[in-house]
Design goal:
The chain is of the alpha+beta class. It has helices spanning 11-23, 29-44, 54-60, 80-86, 90-93, 108-119, 165-187, 206-215, 220-232, 235-241, 296-349, 356-382, 396-414, 433-454, 510-520; strands at 65-69, 75-78, 124-131, 137-148, 154-163, 191-195, 201-204, 245-253, 259-272, 284-294, 392-394, 417-421, 429-431, 460-468, 471-478, 524-527, 535-542. A hairpin with a 5-residue loop joins strand 6 (191-195) and strand 7. The two termini are 88 Å apart. The relative contact order is 0.05. Bound molecules: flavin-adenine dinucleotide.
Length: 546
């Protein structure tokens, strides 16, 4: 709003009063307050009660640099603060153009815009690089307003400015620090996000943005937290207790179906709120710094090592089993001639007409008997002993997954498709992982052999788990030739096999050994008599708490 001067009254005093009136709405609260005090004093009492110098004194003592110029920017008045900021005394500056303050580094276009604005009768605000009397430069936040007389003619310009060099340096420093922090956060390979108390992401980095694309989710954190909930509790309780967490490993699926592993950490910190309301009463709000390191390659490496160890373990157990079978067979084979030898010696011993030849023969036979006994003992000692049964609480899905991992190559080379349907949150069973793995291995071997031998067109094995009250069941279905009805009991007998030819190393022992493992676990194994599209075997194991 233009400022008018009443020509009928003392021009200098009333022009000043109007100017003050005008500037009561200035952004500078300090100047406004000083001027308001002066004006209130002048209005609150009879007109002649205000000493004429008060308004000028107020301007003079203002903490802002104030100058009044003619229409060519020639300085007519400058207050004390103006002289303090610029270094020029009033005598040195009055009569000079404001351009004396120019450091000559402000772009010309800014001056052009300044002049166009004030000459059009509007107020201009902006920043100019000024030069003090001693040559030092400073950044000035300047406001220039045109002053009008009662006829509306522009008569003067009022300039107010303050040194904002430090404020600018501080602002730049904050900007630089922000840019630095953002570039560090962005370049870190870990997924990083800062969440406010309502779980809204307020800062994230490039790795997090990539995860948005990879998971095809607008807010991947929601999904990561779902996975974390069972380990660290829900977000609200975590926030209430300001509970941090470190290196919690979780898996998540990408849009492509690929699985990724992350080690997640979250730490809480508080920030001071910068609202005006909190100027006198401090308020802090909590933030969660969330970090997730991609550990997929380490996990894959671990899985590889684990699967190799498992393969070696199963191979060793297989070897032990065949050694057991072979040596037991050899002991059995050896025992019958040894028993015959004992019987022959007994008969010879009891003969009444023993000759000297017989005695000589007996002593040779006794020597043979002794050697045979020793050999038999050695053989029996060489039979690998079974380790004790030490059951623990197990996840059957994990046991099956382990075996399937080892069988992947074989299944691929046989062109057999596995349909693996693990039930979600399978109940734990009480058992020995190795024995159960071996049981699944025997069933899987039988299923593969049945499909290969049957030369089936559909080459499919389905394995599914299910929770059934106090049991966990495993159903294994193969698309092979199946087991004919009359043989469904016989197949559990040792050394019985429906297969002819092929790999006979364990021929006829698979189901026997599987049944043996199931018996030790107090479970059941059944062949489904009503299934006619191959073979369906159902295994049930008691859940661990029963
Ligand atoms: P100049 O040749 O003086 O001017 C540069 C450009 O400004 C010209 O090309 C022209 O477009 C415009 N211009 C200058 N004078 C006029 C005029 N009389 N009429 C129309 N256009 C004109 N400048 C500062 O650097 N620091 C200040 O703190 C500052 N405070 C000011 C306060 C007031 C109240 C006013 C009215 C002006 C103020 N100025 C200030 C502007 C100053 O008057 C100069 O325009 C500026 O300093 C540039 O000076 P110069 O010598 O580099 O160039």
């Amino acid at each position: 709003m233009p400022v008018t001067v009443h020509q009928t009254e003392s021009p200098s005093e009333h022009a000043l009063e109007r100017l003050i009136e005008r500037y009561l709405h200035e952004p500078s609260a300090e100047l406004a307050a000083t001027l308001r005090a002066a004006l209130t004093q002048s209005r609150g009492a009879p007109r002649d009660a205000l000493p004429p110098h008060v308004l000028k004194d107020a301007l003079e003592q203002s903490p802002l640099a104030v100058s009044i110029t003619d229409l060519n920017a020639k300085i007519l008045y400058a207050n004390r603060c103006f002289t303090e900021v610029t270094g020029y005394s009033q005598e040195e500056i009055v009569g000079h153009n404001e351009s004396l303050l120019s450091y000559k580094s402000t772009p010309r276009a800014i001056y052009r815009e300044l002049w166009q604005t004030i000459q059009a009768g509007h107020r201009w605000s902006g920043k100019l690089v000024n030069r003090r009397k001693d040559g030092a430069r400073y950044l000035a936040a300047v406001t220039i307003s045109p002053v009008f007389d009662t006829q509306g003619a522009m008569t003067h310009f009022l300039g107010i400015h303050r040194d904002v060099t430090e404020w600018f340096a501080l602002e730049r420093k904050v900007c630089n620090q922000k840019a630095f922090i953002e570039s560090v956060v962005d370049s870190t390979p870990a997924v990083m996000a800062v969440l406010d108390e309502s779980m809204k992401v307020v800062l994230d980095n490039q790795a997090y943005k990539k995860l948005i694309t990879d998971m095809d989710q607008p807010e991947p954190l929601v999904h990561l937290f779902e996975q974390l909930r069972s380990r660290v509790g829900d977000f609200e309780s975590m926030r209430a207790a300001q509970r941090s967490f470190y290196n919690c490993e979780i898996a998540c699926k990408l849009a492509t179906g690929e699985q990724r592993w992350f080690a997640c950490s979250g730490t809480w910190s508080c920030e001071l709120v910068s609202d005006v309301d909190t100027f006198f009463s401090e308020k802090r709000v909590p933030y969660l710094l969330f970090l997730a390191h991609d550990i997929t390659s380490q996990k894959q490496q671990q899985e590889r090592i684990r699967s190799n160890a498992m393969r070696a373990l199963l191979a060793e157990e297989g070897m032990n089993q065949s050694l057991q079978e072979t040596l037991s067979g050899a002991v059995y084979q050896f025992e019958s001639p040894f028993n015959m030898l004992n019987a022959a010696m007994d008969m010879l011993e009891r003969r009444s007409d023993k000759s000297a030849m017989d005695d000589a023969l007996l002593s040779v036979l006794a020597e043979v008997q002794e050697q045979a006994r020793g050999a038999l003992h050695n053989l029996q000692q060489a039979i690998p002993r079974e380790e004790g049964f030490e059951p623990v609480s197990l996840n059957l899905n994990q046991v099956i997954h382990d075996v399937l991992m080892i069988y992947t190559e074989r299944l691929l080379s046989e062109g057999i498709v596995i349909d693996w349907k693990p039930t979600a949150s399978v109940k734990p069973v009480f058992g020995e992982a190795n024995r159960l793995r071996n049981m699944i291995k025997h069933l899987l071997d039988n299923a593969i052999e049945a499909i290969v031998a049957g030369d089936c067109r559909r080459r499919e094995i389905t394995i599914e788990t299910a929770n059934e009250d106090k049991w966990v069941s495993v159903t294994l279905i193969d698309s092979g030739g199946g087991i004919p009805e009359p043989l469904r009991i016989k197949v559990f007998e040792p050394f019985f096999s429906t297969k002819t030819g092929g790999d006979a190393s364990h021929a006829g022992m698979g189901l026997t050994l599987a049944q043996d493992v199931i018996n030790r676990h107090a479970g059941t194994l059944e062949i489904d008599a009503h299934f006619h599209h191959g073979c369906r075997i159902n295994v049930r194991l008691p859940v661990s708490h029963s």
